[in-house]
Design a protein that fits this description.
It comes from Nitrosopumilus ureiphilus. The chain is an alpha+beta fold and about 160 residues long. It has helices spanning about 1-20, 25-30, 120-130, and strands at about 30-45, 50-60, 65-75, 80-90, 105-115, 135-145, 150-155. A hairpin with a 4-residue loop joins strand 6 and strand 7 (about 150-155). The N and C termini lie far apart (about 65 Å).
Length: about 160
């Protein structure tokens, strides 16, 4: 009888931890993300690749502190799909990442590599000549607190 009571107690404790962790999900899903800049960094004529700095402004409108572990996105230039990219800090321990405390707005930069063979040559030339006038991204952002992790879809552009 004591063993059954102990097992039931452990299961109840685990259920309580899961419930407590899920209380963060509402706050984590309120994260705001905005594409603020796409800037040419380097062009390699040997590899036929161009590297761009893609900057996202991530905002925390809640009182819950969190970190961003992954931003996966597809980037469009003047409505044409250029490719996909990923910003990831998943290999960095939670205490080593940027903390988004209440009201924080932190720019996160990512390197996007555009290969000449992946897009139309006219689009590639327009990108390296800075003739693309509007950029947009769609994707998902994964936020984490010490107890919980959520993923939110987003679309943004400028």
């Amino acid at each position: 009888m004591t063993v059954y009571a102990a097992v039931a107690g452990v299961l109840a404790l685990m259920g309580g931890i899961v419930y407590y962790a899920s209380l963060d999900n509402v706050d984590l899903n309120q994260v705001e993300i905005e594409l603020t800049n796409v800037e040419l960094r380097d062009v390699s004529t040997i590899n036929n690749q161009a590297k761009f700095d893609v900057t996202f402004l991530v905002k925390n409108p809640t009182d819950k502190t969190f970190t961003v572990s992954v931003i996966e996105y597809k980037i469009y230039g003047d409505g044409t799909l250029l490719g996909s990219g990923i910003y990831s800090t998943a290999d960095i321990a939670l205490p080593g990442r940027a903390l988004f405390s209440a009201g924080a707005e932190i720019p996160l930069k990512n390197t996007f590599v555009l290969s000449k063979g992946d897009v139309n040559s006219e689009i590639y030339e327009a990108m390296i000549d800075n003739r693309i006038t509007s950029f947009s991204v769609e994707g998902s952002i994964t936020t984490q607190s010490s107890w919980s992790e959520t993923q939110k879809e987003f679309k943004t552009g400028y």
